[in-house]
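Can't attach files on this board, so I'm pasting raw text. These are the components:
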Amino acid sequence: MIRELNDLTAGLFLISGFAILRFRQVQDCFRSFLFQSFFLAVSAFLIGFKLDSLDLMIATGITILSKLILIPWTLNRSLHQEMYERREIAQILNLPVSLLIGAGLLIFSYFISMPILRHLSEFSKVNLPIGIAGALIGAYTLIVRQEAIPQLIGILAMENGGFFLGISTAANLPLMAELIAAFDVLILAFVAGILIHHIHQKTGTTHVGSLNALKEGTGKP
Amino acid sequence: MPERIFFNALQVFVVLFLSPLVKGVQDKLKERLQSKKGPSVFQPYYDIWKLFHKDEIISEYSSWIFRITPYILFITPIFVTLLIPVLTDYPLFFAFMGDMLGGGFILALGGFFAALAAIDTGNPYGPMGASRSRMVGFLAEPVFMIVFFTVAFVAGSTIPYIVQQDWIHPLSNFFSPSHLLLLVAFVMLILAETGKIPVDNPSGHFELAMIDESRNLEYSGKGAALVKWGGCMKFFVLCCIFLNVLAAPWGLATQAALGPVILAVPLIFLKICVFLFVLVGIESSLAKLRLFRITEFLTAAFIISISAMIMKIFSF
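---
Top answer:
Structure tokens for the assembled complex are below.
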């Protein structure tokens, strides 16, 4: 039963990862990220419950505290208006193409984890490929979006993917490492939030994709 | 054997005579959700009755395609009804004549003739709606395919009666991620295929924005009645495939006797009403997408179904 629930959580985790890639609005993107973090916490709780691992239970608590409470709070404080103002996010590729590339990344992550899939525990069988896919889709989001806040969300989604993989393969990871990872992300969000805030103050936009035009020697503005 | 043929015929009658009621309930619910009174739930019956008694006018520039299309639109859902479980959970007489892919093709045949007939008359809005509905159709096609493939991986078959048994035996199959993702993808498909709100506005009567409705603009009298009735039946059949095969294969008759089969009629109607609540909720809370955003909607459905398939294939 726990295994089925974990499978289901993994499916929803994957879908919320795709949702980060799919939505045009910053708000929706951010909400999908919150859902993804929630499913991550649920999966950590389920695995911790099944394996009687206190570490994973604490990791669940850390995830909820840092990703569902502190990061939204920090980002809301530092870039409140931008999150509501920017509705449409500029992208390098159009949405259907990037969704199909996302599907390709999913297939790729199953492909690379296939040789070891048979030897893994019942939870890792699902969590490993989907964690890799989550990380890859997060990285892809980082590439394809041209707006600062969705790029930040992409980094956070990458971390989510890595964590999702980690909770199943290394259930008794030292607590210290988990704590460091969780607060590292928090500080990342905080610093990036301040940075984005300053970019917005100086230039009046968070469209960091146009920074590409600042290359020397291209002649174009 | 003769009773199975009889039950099969009974299924067809249920679909024929219950489908306008489903349409009526849906319209009523939608209006009530917008704090309006709404028409009676029997309004589609009155409409069809009225249209059957009106004169039919056919453009003299149209060909035989225009004339036979209403009959095809009326008959194709009935054919599909013979193949799918509507009232019983054991296969009936025609069950092995075709699988879910066959049903999909039969419904697509109706769509094909509707598009041809819309182009046939020379009305400028017809071809526009027809080409748009084809666009939605071919974007929905890969999703259909992947959904059927996933179903085939799960059950080892695409015969709906076998698939339906596989989801609930054992029950843990029902909660598997690929199943729930499939359900989401299929709901998105139903929204697109039957012209519901994020894709098309069924109650809008502005010709330039129409997708599904504009194909039938030229029909009057008997033809219009048949097209309308066929549309109701198509929706009913899609609901039956979704509910009885994929989402909730409970409440069907399990014994080959008349009593349980008759009892299944109100149960399936109740199930469809619950599903209508969900659909109306979706329709009332979303805005219609712009034409070129429909691609994104259906790509999302495609991605969800692909995820479902991959999670199924690689779950040892």
